[in-house]
Amino acid sequence: MSDAGQRMNPPQRALRLHRQLSGVWSDLPGWRGVLSSVNHGTIGLRFMATACVFFAIGGVLSMLIRAQLSTPRGAFLDTALYNQIFTMHGSIMMFLFAIPMLEGLALWLLPKILGARDMAFPRLSALGYWCYLFGGTIILLSLLAGVAPDGGWFMYTPLSDKTHTPGVNADVWLLGITFVEISAVAAAVEITVTILRCRAADMPLTRMPLMGWYMLGTSVMMLVGFPPLILGSILLELERAFDWPFFAVARGGDPLLWQHLFWLFGHPEVYIIFLPAAGALSTIIPILSRTTILGYGAVVAAVLGLVFLSFGLWVHHMFTVGIPHMALAFFSAASALVAVPTAVQVFVWIGTIWKGRPQLKLPMLYVLGFFLTFVMGGLTGVMLAIVPFNWQAHDTAFVTAHLHYVLIGGFVFPMLAALTYWMPLICGRERVPRLGEAAFWLILIGFHGTFFIMHLTGLLGMPRRIDVYPDNPEWVLPNLISSIFSMVMAMGFALFAFDIILQRFLGTHSRRNPWQAPTLDWAMALPAPVYNFASLPVAAHEGRDVAVTLARGEGLLPGAPRGWRETLVVEAGSGRPEHIAVLPDNSMLPVATALTIGSFFILMLAGLYWLTPLSILGIILVLWRWGFVMGADRDHAVVAVAPSLELPLHWQVRGTLAYGGAVATLVADTSLYACLLFGVGFLTVVAPGWPAPESTVPGLWSAALAIIALAALGFGAFAARQAEAGRATRMAQTHALSGIVSAVVALAAFAGIASGMDDPTRHARDALRGVLLGFAVVHVVIALLLALRCHADARGGRMSAHRRGAAPVWRLWQDFAFVTTAISALLVTAQELL
Amino acid sequence: MRWAAWMLAGPLLWAGLFSVVYALHGVGCAWGWPALTTPIGQAQVVILAAVWVGGLALHAILIWQMPRGPSREDRLVSYGAWIGLVASLLTLAPILLTSTCF
């Protein structure tokens, strides 16, 4: 143990510390609190509660589907409404339930289990929640208005293009889901940074709770996996709104590009959902088996394997589209191989139960339900990974059954285990006996009765997404059985919800740490206080009963003596304490930002494109305000964290959480740009409508403008470096000003290039060039804003020898803008020359 | 954090190799490489196999050079390196086993 662990603070009165911290960390009372809360506990619970509401709505839609299919000539729904309902069921369950649920669990749990007071970016948590709520509401309202998406949850082109879906149905999906995805990327950024930097002192990565590894894997996958979907949605919306032909075969597009982009997101998505659930299992199983996890290293290796391999499987969703055998075989092999790390985890969990003394408590029942269900889903997954079988079963009810086994087995059962396990920490109460067990059996029997038989229905040839089957009497009985058992499952979920509500309001008060867990999440009073820990734990506290020790302030950084929300920031690998982050207080900015972003999406949806610049301006103004409250206008003294341990505040260090967040954001940005390059390469090589028509652009003029833009961006990168280096002098202002000028010059050059471009509606190549240019413009505008921020900081005395303001982030962003613009310029040049 | 870079090196190499081979496969099919022959076989297979074997050699070098020891960090480095090698070996083995562009 290091100094931080050895030199603890003297004990204080726990009640005094509790009052002091509660005053600083609590939400505001009433509606102001609802709108302005940024606390991870509140936001995490809101995410989970809202996700459960969407789960209930999606569940009701599934009951409508089952009612329709219970007879061969179901007249319950007409075909158009049926299309909307199955599309909404899938979209709600994937985008509005599963992902937000895991985000909510991560936001609520991670600071507790890692030993921190909050997530790295509390306002980003709140922004993510509001984007999720508003986006989800837009999608839901479309169902009530009768214009819900109706092209299936993966929205394939050409079905979803303007010709075949002329209404706003597809636009609702594309814009609403993209709005919600902002929330997912925001969550991914802050989960990544929180796990790497906001852990208990001296907790190295290799000793952190396995939940941390699972969530780290999840968040990195989200950073890389969500941008393809966002890019695909942008391209399809551009095609629908402005006729840019990315997917139109006659003009150089290809519908397969959509499938590639969608499944580049879609398959990793399965593991994005599974990994947090597996993290919950790896946390719960050892505790309820009264032992330690078997093979920590093997589990981390399995997570590593899953994170990477899951990006090599996406084409197995496209096995029937006519891809050459060799490519099929690459993805078939990868699809089979991914079963290995999954199996490693299953064996680790079984071994852990075998090694320990398992208790058949309610969470353990759900764990056993997971084993039964997920293993069966995994086995049918291996069957579907084999190309010849896949060709037979493709687009049948067999696939529907498989994906429900994987998703309900691999996510819902573990989440139910997690909810029942952590409910005492959430509400401080014990559950009402026996009701939960009844719910479990109803869900388990109902689930398998519904979906096991569906495999057979699929093998009998029933396709997915049909609403009537009058000519196939052999499908009648299995469908009726599925429908009956689905009602049993629905009753189980309703009983589960009732049980949770009873526990919240009528359960008896729970004793502290009811599971006798050694993890830090239980080293606190029940229900969890808003600040988590009155003093922060060190790694050595894990595995010991330190709740009282920490409550009395004997850990690090006791109380809130400065009236700020403070938490410890550590070095990513070793966990060595580095500095103290002062986190933002309650704020209306997140909800205001989400509303301005929402206004953009609504204007797009309404077709009022000419008004969208107003929304963009609003977004810029609100974001400017975010930046304004981030800095400090004077140097602060170091803070005594413990005897002989003094640390600086975050304003006076370079490697801040914000810098880490910027790096994580650029990882997502790089993924988006890489997918754009993939799109260019794919259409150039594979799409039938190529080569593109001759360009009418004056080449020399465009080349000159591109060189001017690149020179300006390069100069901006130099200015950003100089501004940071000269931050203690008046020259910082001058350098920031030159950065502003260089960005304006680059934008002017881009405007010149845009004015002379080929019509982007003519051919996919021209449309892609428009997107490449748009990508550069957006990044230069952001670089310009950061340069302006840096200039304002320098002028307002918010930079000094110790305070760098926005300069490091500006520099990072400016470099990225320069490099990506240079690559785009080279690509276009190569297209012209080759 | 050097150990983390070592741990990620193997899977990253697999990701890069998989992407390059898949891209070359697409380019080769579009540009008619299967119609070209070399003294040791069909041009496309030869090119893909050369890239694959080169990648496997890099994996082998990685395993040869990786830090070894009893610590958990060293074990994770070893796991990462082997995951990369096995993934590259198995997922790209179809280069030698299947037809190319149909």
From TrEMBL, chain A:
Keyword presence, Transport: yes
Listed SUPFAM superfamilies: Cytochrome c oxidase subunit I-like (SSF81442)
EC number assigned by the record: 7.1.1.9
Cytochrome oxidase subunit I profile domain: residues covered: 19-540
Record carries keyword Cell membrane: yes
One GO CC term, this protein: plasma membrane
Gene Ontology MF terms: cytochrome-c oxidase activity; heme binding; metal ion binding; oxidoreductase activity
Origin: domain of life: Bacteria
Reactions it catalyzes: 4 Fe(II)-[cytochrome c] + O2 + 8 H(+)(in) = 4 Fe(III)-[cytochrome c] + 2 H2O + 4 H(+)(out)
Record field: transmembrane: 45-65, 85-109, 129-148, 172-193, 213-236, 256-281, 293-315, 327-353, 365-391, 403-426, 438-460, 480-502, 597-624, 657-687, 699-720, 732-755, 767-788, 809-830
Record membrane topology: Multi-pass membrane protein
Cellular compartments annotated: Cell membrane
Alphabetical list of InterPro entries matching this protein: Cyt_c_oxase-like_su1_dom, Cyt_c_oxase-like_su1_sf, Cyt_C_Oxase_1, Cyt_c_Oxase_su1_BS, Cyt_c_oxidase_su1_bac
Keywords: Cell membrane, Copper, Electron transport, Heme, Iron, Membrane, Metal-binding, Oxidoreductase, Respiratory chain, Translocase, Transmembrane, Transmembrane helix, Transport
The protein's annotated pathway: Energy metabolism; oxidative phosphorylation
Gene Ontology BP annotations: electron transport coupled proton transport; oxidative phosphorylation; respiratory electron transport chain
PANTHER family, per the entry: CYTOCHROME BO(3) UBIQUINOL OXIDASE SUBUNIT 1, CYTOCHROME C OXIDASE SUBUNIT 1
Family stated for the protein in its record: Belongs to the heme-copper respiratory oxidase family.
Name of the featured protein: cytochrome-c oxidase
Organism of origin: Pseudotabrizicola algicola
